[in-house]
């Protein structure tokens, strides 16, 4: 339960409680404005009734032909609002918009290979690993996670336009590509 | 362009791209030797010069190219960058306008002309360019560009009110003239709705919203749906909207809280017929209640909406005096706590509904206190934390004695330790489950300090929070609390250390830097050569440069991508950041520190004066984030933020204006830059200002109570000193200051020496006859009482603060006295040269300065000596032990090493700051002894 509303440029003044969390990056203003000036409908905020920001998602639409899809660039929830299914709700909005407005074939996202909780959550939402991307993430200086910490799973969920489920595969975990092949 | 020339020009671009500005200039000079009239190369050289900070030379070239009225893409493009770098948006408009006129069929040029107008906020011309483009190229998007421009012109604060609706009507006419309906594109549709809303055409808005395309858009587009909700409210269709929301909740399982609010709003929609209003209302409430109950039963622990909806419903029923069950609020609260008491946000959810009294309050308190269980699970910890927060919020004033608070602090701390092992195996990147208990303890200890003003409670808070932070390294809320407390304790370097660990970046520099930079000149050692805070100010101000360089680009991109819904938002964002209050608080702190560090000269005074005058015309926006500090103080007490503000006061508009007025007054007296001179010398666009009443001088003279109320008493004394000093010396400054023509001639001579070219736009024909002033020399008077007594008064203040106040207060007195002295030095700088004194016969006046200077220096030296003594005391091991002993922790589980290390950190930091400021004082006394 929360208010689901569009992400606005001025939200940059109030996302501190979300962004001071170590796993959430604060990008330059151009990053947010770039997304808002292209895909404002793929960026939304969850807000508590008190007006405090709980989390947000920033996404885009990209790809050619059958690769045309919605992409989750950043999704984050402030520590005090975790375990309330907020991420799930933001994801379903992003899926809805990717499907109906952009007519994409699938939605995809990247997740650290060692982030088991998130992977499990995305699997529960219908996502599956499409490939493993080597050294996708910079090291946070935490260091002990080894390969699983730097590598990312590219996870996908087919949308209604891909009724034949061509955008996913069952052996995705075994397909390994390097970071510069995907960006 | 010939191939050969093209080949010569490529290295210039390469050098520019790689940031080798100097070699770009060399390359340009090479080509210019052979092709001295080539506009592109000149433009590129101007660009390289701008980037190489050689603005004066760039200006000359820039003007030459502009005069040649370029039309080719490359030159225009290079010039666009030059003009942007110089802030000359208006010239950019003129340049593109002329080029587009010559080639009216060049679509790209048309678009660039439109964008140039957008950059300059010339909405009216932008609208005209866009209409022209629409006629020429028949593209719908240009029609929408013109519509958007009209709307933006209407929204511009400088547009007269009567123009607004005309402009909106024009926009509506344009939009309805489009060959395709707005609903083919969600952002066009949004723009259309904005216009209809503004013109109060709600029925028409409904018609377009109810079309299948309109419905579809609102289904998937949150921005349009937000607009739809707004229009429904405005046309008072609250009941209809409530019914719609009800359907969504039931049929689509929508759990957006906005839908629940719509249902509740609908439930309380006003009746047309008021006969049996109350019964009707009650029956509606009960059907909404049934709906929410159904939802809450269905969702169980999965979603909070149903139960929270019931609470909101009951709370509104009480406000409308139609609640039927006096126990209902209590029961709902109990139920909510029962089901969601182990969610971290439970306290925040319930906070608006904690208005119980009497028996009900007692029953509620009972529920919470009996909920305490052993802290053996994470759920139990969260439940206890919520219970504490809820209980604490409702404490009455009588329950807030020092003793009672002390036992609460002990309870929270011991429960913290009890629950801590639950998170033993968490990775270092995770927060501990018990963190909030430490934060609660910190809140209580600060409240005890507030009640007793005994620093030992702050020390205890610091020790415990440092301990908890060592266990939970990412707990940024604790860091923020510590930063505040360390500053009060006069231990700025410990505060700085924590601030840096927060890794504040980008736009956060605007919203969070107040934690570090608020009144940071109090702790600055710039006077003794340590530039830490000066560089923190410069670094955090970088974001404003990014804003003015980048945000504009995205407004243009939003036009290109037709995201009209975003454009007004981007403009607001840009404006809030541009006119940020914190920006200028930081600027003032920077300036105050700069004067302690650099020798005061007319160069500093002139440059700063120009900038301060720009700032003075800004309407500031406060973007500072204070909400980020956790607050668990009882509702009757001050909140944690207010309790921990340095000197108990936050700088707001009044503070900024008070200091700005003082500095502008002093600097404009000390400077030779009169308005005439400034007008001639400044290049580029001036900031847009709404017409202000009165001249600058009149506005500087006004001091009002409201503004002054934001100052501490010591700051007020400084302002009074400055006003009095400036009032006393103004006639002498005006008498001695050289006339504008002399100043301009001087500047022109220097510019010519530097650039080899005469200064443009300044007419230097020598004036006939003698320029000697005709007015009489003003009579020399004694220094006003406020000025004469100031330094001795501050000496008394200082003595008092030494015995009663914390170190930060002591430093506050000292640094303000130092500031007064430096402003005195600035005010009297003009009368220093012996020749000036002799020509104008000011010997008597200068003698009076000397008396003041001598007394000031004596006082400052005294202060320095006392600070040195203080610093030596802080450095002793007894002092450290004293801090450790005062903390009286009962539990032996708290790591003693951390306490000792923290005590050392505090005393070291205090020693360093007292020592450094003393050293700086002495240095300033020496520099300005004469």
Automatic annotation (TrEMBL), chain A:
UniProt KW Acyltransferase keyword: yes
GO cellular component, as recorded: NatB complex
MF-aspect GO terms: protein-N-terminal amino-acid acetyltransferase activity
InterPro entries with a match to the protein in the record: Acyl_CoA_acyltransferase, GNAT_dom, NatB_acetyltransferase_subunit
KW Cytoplasm (keyword) present: no
PROSITE patterns with a match to the protein in the record: GNAT (PS51186)
Domain N-acetyltransferase intervals: 2-160
Domain of life: Eukaryota
This protein's UniProt keywords: Acyltransferase, Transferase
Protein name: N-acetyltransferase
Automatic annotation (TrEMBL), chain B:
A Pfam cross-reference name: NatB_MDM20
GO cellular component: NatB complex
InterPro entries, alphabetized: NAA25_NatB_aux_su, TPR-like_helical_dom_sf
Taxonomic superkingdom: Eukaryota
Gene3D superfamilies tied to this protein: 1.25.40.1040
UniProt similarity note: Belongs to the MDM20/NAA25 family.
Protein name according to UniProt: Actin cytoskeleton organization protein
Species name: Lentinula raphanica
């Amino acid at each position: 339960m929360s208010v689901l509303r569009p992400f606005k440029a001025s939200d940059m003044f109030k996302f501190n409680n979300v962004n001071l969390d170590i796993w959430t990056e604060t990008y330059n203003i151009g990053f947010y404005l770039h997304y808002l000036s292209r895909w404002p409908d793929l960026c939304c905020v969850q807000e508590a009734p008190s007006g405090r920001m709980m989390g947000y998602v920033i996404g885009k639409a990209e790809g050619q032909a059958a690769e045309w899809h919605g992409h989750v660039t950043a999704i984050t929830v402030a520590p005090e609002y975790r375990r309330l299914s907020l991420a799930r709700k933001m994801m379903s909005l992003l899926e809805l918009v990717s499907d109906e407005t952009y007519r994409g074939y699938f939605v995809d996202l990247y997740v650290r290979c060692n982030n088991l909780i998130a992977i499990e959550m995305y699997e529960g939402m219908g996502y599956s690993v499409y490939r493993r991307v080597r050294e996708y993430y910079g090291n946070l200086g935490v260091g002990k996670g080894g390969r699983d910490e730097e590598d990312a799973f590219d996870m996908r969920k087919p949308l209604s336009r891909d009724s034949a489920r061509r955008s996913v595969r069952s052996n995705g975990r075994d397909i390994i590509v390097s970071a510069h092949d995907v960006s | 362009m010939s191939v050969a020339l093209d080949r010569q020009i490529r290295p210039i671009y390469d050098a520019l791209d790689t940031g080798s500005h100097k070699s770009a200039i060399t390359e340009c000079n090479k080509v210019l030797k052979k092709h001295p009239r080539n506009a592109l190369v000149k433009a590129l050289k101007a660009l390289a010069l701008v980037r190489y900070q050689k603005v004066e030379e760039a200006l000359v070239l820039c003007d030459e190219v502009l005069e040649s009225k370029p039309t080719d893409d490359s030159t225009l493009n290079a010039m666009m960058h030059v003009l942007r770098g110089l802030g000359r948006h208006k010239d950019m408009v003129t340049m593109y306008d002329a080029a587009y006129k010559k080639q009216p069929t060049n679509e790209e040029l048309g678009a660039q002309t439109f964008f140039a107008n957008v950059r300059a906020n010339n909405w009216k011309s932008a609208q005209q360019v866009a209409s022209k483009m629409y006629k020429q190229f028949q593209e719908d998007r240009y029609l929408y560009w013109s519509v958007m421009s009209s709307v933006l012109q209407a929204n511009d604060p400088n547009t007269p009110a009567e123009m607004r609706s005309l402009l909106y009507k024009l926009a509506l006419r344009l939009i309805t003239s489009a060959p395709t309906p707005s609903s083919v594109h969600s952002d066009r549709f949004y723009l259309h709705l904005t216009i209809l809303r503004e013109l109060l055409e709600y029925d028409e808005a409904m018609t377009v919203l109810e079309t299948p395309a309109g419905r579809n858009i609102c289904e998937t587009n949150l921005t349009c749906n937000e607009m739809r909700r707004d229009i429904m409210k405005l046309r008072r269709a609250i009941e209809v909207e409530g019914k719609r929301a009800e359907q969504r909740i039931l049929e689509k399982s929508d759990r957006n809280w906005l839908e629940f609010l719509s249902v509740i709003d609908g439930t309380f929609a006003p009746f047309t017929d008021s006969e049996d209003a109350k019964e009707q209302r009650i029956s509606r409430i009960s059907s909404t209640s049934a709906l929410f109950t159904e939802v809450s039963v269905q969702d169980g622990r999965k979603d909070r909406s149903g139960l929270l909806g019931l609470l909101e419903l009951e709370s509104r029923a009480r406000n409308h005096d139609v609640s039927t069950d006096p126990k209902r609020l209590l029961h709902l609260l109990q139920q909510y706590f029962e089901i969601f008491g182990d969610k971290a946000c439970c306290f925040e959810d319930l906070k608006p509904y904690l208005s119980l009294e009497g028996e009900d309050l007692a029953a509620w308190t009972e529920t919470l206190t009996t909920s305490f269980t052993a802290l053996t699970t994470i759920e139990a910890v969260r439940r206890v934390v919520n219970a504490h927060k809820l209980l604490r919020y409702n404490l009455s004033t009588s329950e807030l004695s020092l003793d009672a608070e002390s036992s609460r602090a002990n309870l929270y701390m011991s429960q913290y330790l009890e629950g801590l092992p639950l998170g033993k195996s968490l990775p270092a990147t995770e927060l501990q489950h018990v963190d909030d208990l430490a934060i609660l303890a910190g809140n209580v200890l600060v409240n005890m300090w507030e009640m007793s003003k005994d620093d030992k409670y702050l020390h205890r808070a610091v020790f415990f929070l440092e301990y908890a932070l060592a266990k939970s390294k990412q707990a940024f809320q604790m860091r923020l609390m510590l930063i505040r407390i360390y500053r009060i304790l006069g231990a700025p370097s410990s505060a700085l250390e924590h601030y840096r660990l927060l890794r504040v970046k980008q736009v956060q520099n605007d919203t969070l830097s107040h934690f570090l930079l608020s009144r940071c000149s109090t702790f600055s050692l710039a006077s003794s050569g340590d530039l830490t805070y000066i560089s923190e100010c410069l670094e955090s101000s970088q974001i404003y440069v990014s804003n003015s360089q980048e945000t504009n680009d995205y407004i243009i991109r939003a036009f290109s991508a037709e995201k009209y819904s975003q454009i007004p938002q981007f403009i607001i964002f840009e404006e809030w950041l541009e006119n940020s209050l914190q920006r200028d608080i930081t600027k003032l702190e920077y300036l105050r520190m700069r004067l302690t560090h650099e020798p005061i000269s007319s160069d500093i005074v002139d440059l700063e004066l120009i900038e301060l005058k720009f700032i003075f015309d800004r309407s500031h926006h406060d973007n500072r984030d204070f909400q980020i500090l956790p607050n668990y103080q009882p509702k009757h007490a001050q909140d944690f933020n207010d309790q921990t503000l340095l000197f108990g006061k936050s700088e707001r508009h009044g503070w900024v204006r008070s200091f700005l007025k003082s500095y502008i007054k002093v600097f404009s007296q000390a400077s030779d830059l009169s308005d005439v001179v400034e007008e001639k010398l400044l290049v580029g666009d001036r900031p847009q200002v709404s017409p202000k009443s009165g001249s600058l001088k009149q506005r500087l003279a006004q001091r009002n109570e409201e503004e002054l109320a934001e100052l501490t008493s010591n700051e007020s004394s400084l302002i009074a000193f400055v006003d009095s000093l400036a009032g006393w010396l103004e006639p002498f400054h005006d008498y001695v200051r050289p006339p504008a023509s002399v100043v301009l001639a001087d500047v022109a001579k220097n510019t010519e020496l530097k650039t080899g070219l005469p200064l443009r736009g300044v007419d230097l024909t020598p004036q006939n006859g003698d320029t000697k002033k005709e007015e009489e020399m003003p009579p020399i008077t004694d220094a006003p009482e406020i000025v004469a007594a100031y330094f001795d008064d501050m000496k008394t203040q200082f003595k008092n603060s030494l015995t009663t106040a914390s170190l930060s207060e002591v430093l506050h007195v000292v640094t303000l006295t130092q500031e007064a002295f430096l402003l005195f030095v600035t005010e009297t700088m003009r009368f220093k040269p012996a020749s000036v004194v002799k020509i104008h016969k000011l010997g008597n006046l200068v003698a009076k300065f000397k008396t003041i200077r001598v007394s000031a220096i004596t006082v400052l030296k005294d202060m320095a000596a006392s600070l040195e003594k203080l610093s030596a005391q802080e450095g002793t091991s007894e002092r450290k032990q004293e801090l450790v002993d005062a903390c009286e922790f009962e539990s032996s589980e708290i790591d003693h090493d951390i306490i000792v290390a923290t005590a050392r950190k505090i005393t070291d930091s205090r020693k360093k700051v007292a020592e450094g400021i003393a050293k700086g004082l002495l240095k300033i006394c020496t520099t300005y002894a004469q």
